[in-house]
Amino acid sequence: MDFIDPHIHMVSRVTDDYETLARMGCVAVSEPAFWAGFDRGTVDGFRDYFEQLTAVEPKRAAQFGIQHYCWLCINAKEAENVSLSREVISMIPEFLDRPGVLGIGEIGLNKNTKNEATVFLEHMELAIKYDQPILIHTPHLEDKYQGTRMILDMLCDDSRINPDRVLVDHVEEHTVSEVLDRGFWAGMTLYPVTKCTPDRAADMIERHAGERLLANSAGDWGISKPTAVPDLIFTMRRRGMDEALIRKVVHDNPVEFFSKSKQFHYTPR
């Protein structure tokens, strides 16, 4: 089955991972800007990173027939540095018209601090000004529920934000319903240790009939598995779930959400 990984950090993966994904049916990936495993100190460091996302990674992916898309921001883990964050935010428009740039993300909160919230709101203003979809990072573990509520409240407090153009990622059982009830899209990140397992994701898919749900691997610098979406496909098939529902979650929903960006020019196989 063809699938799309809507949130995978391929700059942290070797080229062999592109080949493996292609062999397993991956036709497209979406790569949000994120923390590089260390805090970058200058706006030029981010400019080089955005060059990598928009110019280098699409060429690596194309070698294996995979279409590569990306999102731009300064990640919540680096948002404590508000002055640097503002420099990066003011630089992002240089890249927004590049092919494959879908919007602003992954923005959000990490430890739910005041500085993180300030930078989140300034990213929101950028997305509104340039009419960009938004991809949201929600915090990990004990900070997730409070942080998710804070993010949803900030989004809903601004009438200019259309929830149908916002994907709230890293949802779990205790946050997914509120995200969907408020009209947003929800992403389930399949990690070997934290976040969500394929079986837990399948439970949420059954509970919500797959509506506005996406599944991703994240595939970043830490313990992660870039082939997690095929694992979910296998799990759903093992449980006897309908093929149309499986395709909806791993292919059709990403296409529908990403189509809200004018830069999404997807060619199905």
From TrEMBL:
Domain of life (superkingdom): Bacteria
Keyword line: Hydrolase, Metal-binding
Molecular function terms, GO-annotated: hydrolase activity, acting on ester bonds; metal ion binding
PANTHER family tied to this protein: HYDROLASE TATD
UniProt record similarity statement: Belongs to the metallo-dependent hydrolases superfamily.
Name of the protein in question: Metal-dependent hydrolase
Organism in which the protein naturally occurs: Rhodopirellula baltica (strain DSM 10527 / NCIMB 13988 / SH1)
Lineage of the species this protein comes from: Bacteria, Pseudomonadati, Planctomycetota, Planctomycetia, Pirellulales
